[in-house]
Amino acid sequence: MSKRTCALAETDGPCKPARMRGWCQKHYARFLRHGDPLTTATRGKGELIAELRAAGAATTNECIILATRGSTRPVAKLDGTLMLASRAVWILANGDPGEAHVLHTCHRGEEGCINLRHLYLGDNGRNIADMVTAGRSTRGERSGMHKLKEPEVQEIRRLLRDQVPREVIARRFGVSGSTVYQISAGKTWGWLTDDRH
After folding, report:
1. For residue 23, which phi and psi values (nearest 5 degrees)?
2. How far apart are CA 51 and CA 42, in angstroms?
3. What pLDDT is stored for residue 98 in this prediction?
4. How many Cα atoms sit within 13 Å of 97 on the Cβ side?
5. What angle in degrees, to the nearest 10, is found between the helix axes of 85-94 and 47-57?
6. Which of 67, 77, 78, 75 is nearest to 111 (CA)?
7. Three-class SS state of 75
8. What is the DSSP secondary structure assignment for residue 190, as one 8-state letter?
9. Distance between CA 120 and CA 90 in Å, rounded?
10. What is the spatial distance between Cα 55 and Cα 90, in angstroms, rounded to a whole number?
11. What is the pLDDT of residues 9-30, one digit of tens each?
12. Taking Cα atoms as reference points, which of 154, 130, 126 lies closest to residue 140?
């Protein structure tokens, strides 16, 4: 079995055999570090802080995306503490927000947006609500642990309104009585609106 050649060998000089994404180890490492398999540039000392300060003073309403390491949110070390780059921008521009979360109005924090104009403070509940709004939540059918589908939850709610005992509903849908109780109390699937048509 022959080894595959790195897809960038002709563009960027001699390479070892391809490993990940069709690239050799060198190009894949560059992609993880810089988001680009062809870049060799690295940030010098102080350059990251300068980028963060610039994002805090930017006048554009467009997202400012900081290059990340692979698929993770960008991080920065500020005063010896490692934190999300968006939080570092907030601290540089406005001071330490304490326990508050630094959130994004653009919902592009996962992509690396650090524009101060897109940042605001909120609590954990607001952070979760933003995650749901942005479609990054794994609740309901998107959860790997789900046992019910939305129409089934709607039917369970209808049966509960019709005074059908929880144990009967649980047997019918192959779930525990506790699951039916959690639905009736709004502790699970509470965000799902009732379909009363």
Report:
1. -110, 155
2. 13
3. 94
4. 20
5. 60
6. 67
7. strand
8. T
9. 9
10. 10
11. 777 777 877 777 787 888 777 7
12. 154
Identity of the amino acid at 154:
Q
Q: Please give the full DSSP string across 81-119, using - where no structure is assigned.
A: EEEEHHHHHHHHHH---TT-EEEESSS-GGGTB--GGGE
- Residue 151 per-residue DSSP state: H
Quote the tokens at residue 123.
Answer: 């609590």
What's at 106, amino acid-wise? C
Question: Which of left, alpha, beta for 70 (phi over 0: left; psi -120 to 50: alpha)?
Answer: left
Instruction: State pLDDT tens for residues 109-165.
Output: 878 899 999 999 999 888 877 777 776 766 666 666 678 888 898 999 999 999 999
The pLDDT tens digits for 92-107 are 999 999 999 999 999 8
DSSP state of 60: -
Query: What is the CB neighbour count within 10 angstroms for residue 142?
Result: 10
Q: How confident is the model at residue 193 (pLDDT cuts 50, 70, 90)?
A: low
